[in-house]
Amino acid sequence: MQLKYGAQTTQQRDDPTVKAFRCDRFGQFIHWGLYALPAGVWRGETYDFAAEFLPKSANIADADWQALAADFTIDRFDASQWARTAKAMGARYVTVTAKHHDGFCLWPSEFSDTTVAVTPHGRDLLGEIVAAYEAEGLAVHLYYSVLDWHHPDWRYRIESADDAASFARYLTFAQNQLRELATRYPTVRGFWFDGTWDESVKANGWWTFEVERMLKELIPGVLVNSRLRADEHGARHRDSNGDLMGDFFSGYERRLPDPWDRSTADHDWEACMTIPQNSWGYHASAAVAATCKQPVELIEQLAHAVSLSGNLLLNFGPMGDGALPRFEIEIAEQIGAWMRVNGEAIHGCGMASGWDYPGWGYYTQNAETGATYAIVTRMPVSGAIKPQAPAGTGIRSVRTLATGEEVEFTRLDEQTVSIPVPRDAPVPVVFVFDVEREKADVPTREVNPDVA
Ligand code: FHN
C-alpha cells in the first residue's frame, strides 16, 4: 500500500556507520538521572518496581520529584571511569539517557526548566559523557524519551481539540530538543528513542517520520532505532507494508528471539537487557539486587544475540552520586575477562550461515574471515558436542580460543565430528573451526535418501 510516513528505505543499510554498529555487537546502556537518587525508595517506603518509574509507583507530585535536582551533586561522577569500564568489558558503544520519562535533561537544554542547569554543579553531564566515551574509542548513541511526565503539554491520547493543540506544542518542544541535541553533539552515532507506545504518538506518525528525516539531515548517516517510528496508520517498528522503519529493530527488551529464529538476520537488530530482572535505573532494594543475572548468563545472551546477527545492549544504572555500583563493576570485569579471550567470536561476527541451532550453545561466524565459532553454554550429557557442518563442507581442524591449541576430535561422517568439552574450562567454552569448502577426504558413497 502507498504510505506517506512509512519506512524511509526498504533496503537494509550497508554504509560504514551501520557496518560499524553491526561489527560492534556489544553496547553498554546507561540509565542515569534523578531516579538514581531515591533509587526506588520514597519517604521510607521501598517500591520494588523499576527505579526510574518511582514517580508513578509512589505517586509523587512532579514538583517534589523535580526538587531532587538540588540533591544531584554527583560527587563521585567520572565519565572516564564509566567509559574505561565499558571498554574493558568489551563494549564498543554506549547508549545514554539524555532525557528519560521524568523530563530531566542531562544537558543544559534551553527548552526545558528541568536540566542539569538547575543542579548545584550545572555541568553539561551529557557533554562529558560523549567526550569521555569517544576518547576511549567507543561510539555514543543518545537515548531520548518522547514520553515526558513533566511537560504540561504531554498527552497520552488526543481526546479533544485542546489535547490536539497541547500535544502539537509538545511535539514542537521535543523536536526542538532533538535538533538541539544533534547540533550540540554532532559526533554521536545514533539516536535511541523510547516512550513512543502511547496513542498520542501513534496518531502522529508524520512527526516520527519528520524527526528521523531531520536527524539524518543534521548528522548524515546517524542511526535511528525502530522504536521512534509509527506510520500514518499507527503501525510501529514495521510500517503497514511490513517494512522496518528506522535503521535497526529495537523491539527486543529484556528478551531475545528464539535461538532458532533465523529470520532475524534479515535486518539489523539490538536487544536491550537489564542486569536485575526489571530495573533500568539504580535500585537500592536488596530484593531487586537478588534478581541480578550472573555474568555467565549475560555472556550467553550476548552469544545468543550475535548468533542471530543481532547486538546486545547491556544496561548499567549509576548511583545518584555518579559512581557505578560495585556489583555492576564486578559483572563488567568478569564479562571483560571472557571477552579478552573469546571476543573474536563476538566482534565482527553474526549468524553462521548453514549451521543450525545446536541446542548446547551458539554458532557465530566472522563475515570477513569466514571463521566459524561454537560457543558452548550447556554441557551435553555425553560430554561432547557433535557439530554438523553445512552440506558439502567438513570440519578440518578445531582449536579452543582459551588455549589457541588444536583439540582432538572424532569424525562421525563427512559433515559431523564429536568434540569433547573440557569440564574444567571457564564457561562458555569457545571452539573455532577450520571448515573446508569441499567434501571432507572421506570415501564417498551412495547417498541414502532415507537419511535427512
Ligand atoms: O519505560 C522504559 C524503561 O524505563 C526503560 O527505559 C526501557 C529501556 O528500553 N524502555 C521503557 C520500557 O519499555
The CATH superfamily of the largest domain is known as: Glycosidases
Q: For the record, give the distance between the C-alpha atoms at the N and C termini, rounded to a whole number.
A: 41 Å
Strand order of the largest sheet: 7-6-5-4-1-10-9-8
Task: Determine the CATH topology of the largest domain.
Answer: TIM Barrel
Averaged pLDDT: 96
CATH architectural designation of the largest domain: Alpha-Beta Barrel
Describe this structure in words.
The chain is α/β, with parallel strands linked by helices. The protein has 2 domains: 16-349, Alpha-Beta Barrel (TIM Barrel); 352-437, Sandwich (Immunoglobulin-like), CATH 2.60.40. Helix content is 26%, strand content 18%. It contains 11 helices and 18 strands. It has helices spanning 16-24, 54-57, 62-66, 79-89, 125-135, 161-184, 199-202, 205-218, 286-289, 295-307, 326-342, and strands at 26-30, 41-42, 45-46, 93-99, 139-145, 190-194, 223-224, 249-253, 269-273, 311-316, 349-351, 361-366, 372-376, 384-385, 394-400, 410-411, 417-420, 429-436. The strands form 4 sheets. The protein has an 8-stranded parallel β-sheet with strand order 7-6-5-4-1-10-9-8, sandwiched between helices. β4 (93-99), α5 (125-135) and β5 (139-145) form a beta-alpha-beta unit. The longest helix is centred in the middle third of the chain and has 24 residues, at 161-184. The model has no long low-confidence stretch (mean pLDDT 96). Bound molecules: ligand FHN. Residues 50, 52, 194, 253, 272, 280 line the site of ligand FHN.
